[in-house]
Specification:
about 190 residues; globular
């Protein structure tokens, strides 16, 4: 084992590898960083702020990253979400993404979707949503989960294909774990 990224100015809360083998690092309070470790080298590389995020992602906010099976990067921040274009040179906004922090996200499913937990606040309850990638665009859809309020503070979400049809969500909170079957896609009004 060896350290491959050093000089990192924040706590990495998520890691994803892009199709060009760039490591994307989401942080708890400093936005997004990238690193390109050299294959076969034992030297660690410094994490840097990617040029395409300058002016888009605040350098003093939490951000999270996840990659699909093709290495497409999705970035979540408190005010917006983005899909990294295939060319790796620009970000495209996720359609219908809400200006709220997320507490957790799943890994991508084979169907091109990732599930997220939007954080609650003094005026809103936590909520669940699915982000789906279709070609060069991504869309966010809310999903109602009965009993979500009984879990307390939500901290984790795991999504898996259902043995019959759709998706099974496992949502973890301070007071337990809830299983939710989603047979035909998300069902919910947009959160307030």
């Amino acid at each position: 084992a060896r350290v491959i990224v050093s000089g990192f100015p924040a706590i990495a809360s998520s890691l994803a590898e892009g199709s060009d083998v760039t490591l994307w690092l989401g942080t708890t309070a400093r936005g997004v960083f990238t690193a390109r470790p050299a294959l076969g080298s034992t030297a660690a590389v410094d994490a840097i702020r990617p040029e395409i995020t300058r002016g888009v992602i605040d350098t003093n906010e939490a951000a999270s990253v996840v990659a699909n099976q093709d290495g497409r990067i999705v970035i979540f921040a408190s005010h917006a979400g983005w899909l990294l274009e295939r060319n790796g040179k620009s970000l495209k906004s996720i359609h219908n993404y809400y200006s709220r922090s997320i507490d957790a996200h799943s890994e991508f499913l084979r169907d091109g979707s990732v599930w997220i937990i939007y954080a609650g606040s003094t005026t809103t309850s936590p909520s669940i949503a699915r982000i789906s990638i279709n070609g060069d665009s991504a869309v966010c859809e809310s999903h109602f989960v009965e009993g979500l309020d009984r879990l307390g503070t939500l901290r984790s979400i795991y999504a898996e294909p259902s043995p019959t049809k759709g998706t099974v969500l496992w949502i973890g909170g301070a007071n337990g774990v809830l299983r939710n079957e989603v047979p035909n896609g998300p069902v919910a009004p947009r959160p307030r």
